[in-house]
Structures are given as structure tokens and as C-alpha cells.
Amino acid sequence: MNIELSKALAEAKARKIEFFMGEACEWKFDIEEHPTFIEDLIGTKAIIFANNGYGNYLFLKADKNGIAEETIFEFFHEGPEINEIEDDIELLLGLKERPPSTDGYPKAVYESGEDVQIGDHVQLKTIFQFWRGWQNGTVKYVPGISKKSLAHEYNGLKWVVVEIKDAELSPVVAPDTGILRKVRFIKRAGKGAEPAN
After folding, report:
1. Per-residue pLDDT averaged across 92-99, rounded?
2. pLDDT digits (tens, 9 = 90+) for 36-69
């Protein structure tokens, strides 16, 4: 019996999604029906829709009519172990935008004390282009303000995204203080220069 894809899986397949971010890793979108190694453990039909390349899978159970349900489960090959994922499948697959995060992680601030805002003009140093010294950039993503992106908020850490001339850089927001190190605040978007301390 073929399993009928859920609306979200069908849309992800139609959009040709290849990869998406989870809370702890990146997943490859790859549909596989009737994974016997999982079905034998759960006692019902299932459909895998993603793997991380290390033997872990995301899957949905099929109901008695052969239609994929919406509750997401993760299969860990160590054990093996199966856990329910609380995420909404459309959010996980990137079909809907996530709201800004509202957890207890400290808000991003510059070393000079100003809050980090989208559109801020900044200067920063990078290790891979150290010979260029301080580079001008614009803040494009701020945790807690921007729509949450798991590419910039995962494994208990959060990053601000700064666009420079030929790249995007992601300095980490310190989890204890919220301070964004090695990033100088220059001015707010559309305002005159506000000297950094």
C-alpha cells in the first residue's frame, strides 16, 4: 500500500526542497516509504521524509487509510530510539515563517551597550579576511527580532547576520551577556552617524 503524502510533504516535494534546518542539525529532504526498520519498532506503516546523513531520520506514521499523519518523529540509530518532535511540519520544512524567538536567551547588544537592530551599520573583523581589517557591513538578522531561522539559532546558541561587501558573516551572541564581540556599532539605518564608544 502506497502512503498518501501529507499536504506539507506534497508541497515540499513540489517546491523541490532539498535541505532544511532542524533544532540541532541540517536535514536532507528525502522521501522513503515503508522503512521496515522503523515500522517493525512502531508497529504501523510509516514514511521517512528526511535524513541527516548519520543514520537519523524524520518520519511520519500513516493512519489506517494510508495517509501520512502530521506528528513528526525522529529515529535515532543509537539505541535505536524514537522521539516525538514538537515542531509544526510546515515550520520545520520552511513552508511557513517562524515567529521571532521568545525564549530567555539574552538580547543582542554591542560592546558599547546599544541594542543590535536590523539595518544597523556596523564594522567588524573576520578571521578569514583578517588582512582587510575592520569591514563595513549591515545587520540583516537579529535573534528575537527577525523571524526565527534555525540556521542562526540552534544548539543553544544564536548568531547575528551581518552582510559585508562579498559575504554574510554570523558573529555569535554571547549566551550569558548577549554581547556581540568584535562588531562596532556605527549608526542606525537612515540616521546620521552615532559614534560608538
Report:
1. 91
2. 999 999 999 999 999 999 999 999 999 888 889 9
CA dihedral (174, 178, 179, 181) positive or negative: positive
- Look up residue 147 and give its three cell numbers: 523571524
Q: How far apart are the first and last CA of the chain?
A: 67
Average pLDDT for the chain:
90
The confidence score (pLDDT) of residue 23 equals: 79
- How much is the pTM? 0.71
Q: How many CB atoms lie within 10 A of CB 98?
A: 16
Judged by phi (left if over 0) then psi (alpha if -120 to 50, else beta), residue 172 lies in: beta
Alpha carbon distance 144, 99 (integer Å)? 9
Q: Which residues of 155-166 are buried (b: 16+ CB within 10 A; e: fewer)?
A: eeebbbbbebee
- Find out whether 68 and 5 touch, Cβ atoms under 8 Å: yes
Q: 85 and 75 in contact (C-beta within 8 Å)?
A: no
